[in-house]
Design brief:
The chain is α/β, with parallel strands linked by helices and 257 residues long. The protein is built from eight helices and seven strands.
Length: 257
């Protein structure tokens, strides 16, 4: 029987060895983004902005234009790019330490203004590149380099996990907010549908769109990859529920993937 190739590397994804840790979700997320860009045939009109953190490596893998803004300033850079090049697909690719900490003001005001770009928000509940410090999204009781006994909301400076998707959903400028994960093939497919819907909305000229993606970080969680996936599903998903959180898009027809 003649063999037939039915799936290969997306053209928008460079054929290079990954720098990410074993079990990290960034690689899967990169694959989803590039598959969609190829399906939509918009690689030549795509620009990604990726700041400090594990996201800073994204331009090593994406075969399209990229800009690296200062830590937390990605939404400001994306705003400028989108206003100058409104026919381009502009993506913010941010981690939780970047978007929900130093970049909080940038993110909230960009969403409130209804800036017409899409944010891919990778939430692994910890600072990844810098050594596993407590992030704004770290769970109650979760241990981190700066919270060795676990996050305690009553301890000075710790507080509660920031739910970014729910925070942005109440802003009138946001049009589409969803949260997915990449722990299973089914979850990855669902997350891909969210990303494609957000990208399609941006191409149509609608307002701010964001897809939050729960992603394992075995290295800084101190777990094996399989254990990290299990912990994400048992501990993170109850705090950060999956699904579409806000959808006020003009087109209600779900994009097929």
């Amino acid at each position: 029987m003649e063999e037939k190739k039915i799936r290969g590397r997306p053209a928008s994804l460079y054929p290079v060895q990954t720098k990410y840790c074993g079990g990290c979700g960034h690689g899967v997320i990169h694959r989803l983004i590039t598959e969609i860009i190829d399906e939509m045939a918009i690689r030549e009109r795509t620009i990604i902005t990726n700041p400090v953190g594990c996201a800073i490596w994204a331009d090593l893998y994406f075969d399209f234009d990229s800009v690296q803004p200062p830590h937390g300033r990605t939404p400001a850079a994306a705003t400028g790019i989108k206003r100058v090049l409104p026919d381009h697909l502009v993506i913010c690719y941010q981690g939780d330490g970047d978007m929900a900490a130093i970049g909080t003001a940038e993110m909230i005001h960009a969403a409130n203004r209804g800036e017409k770009f899409t944010t891919i928000f990778v939430n692994n509940a910890i600072y990844g590149m810098t050594g596993g410090q407590m992030a704004p999204t770290t769970l109650i009781g979760q241990k981190a380099a700066t919270a060795p006994l676990g996050r305690d909301p009553d301890a000075p400076g710790m507080g509660y996990p920031v739910k970014v998707a729910e925070l942005l959903a109440v802003l009138e400028g946001s049009r589409y907010i969803a949260r997915g994960s990449v722990t299973t093939p089914a979850n990855a497919r669902k997350t891909k549908s969210y990303i494609k819907k957000a990208f399609s909305a941006q191409v149509r000229g609608e307002g701010f769109t964001m897809v939050e993606i729960l992603s394992p970080c075995p290295t800084n969680w101190g777990m094996e990859p399989v254990q990290a996936v299990e912990w994400l599903e048992s501990a993170m998903v109850p705090v950060f529920p999956l699904g579409e959180i806000k959808n006020t898009l003009v087109s209600i027809k779900e994009d097929k993937v």
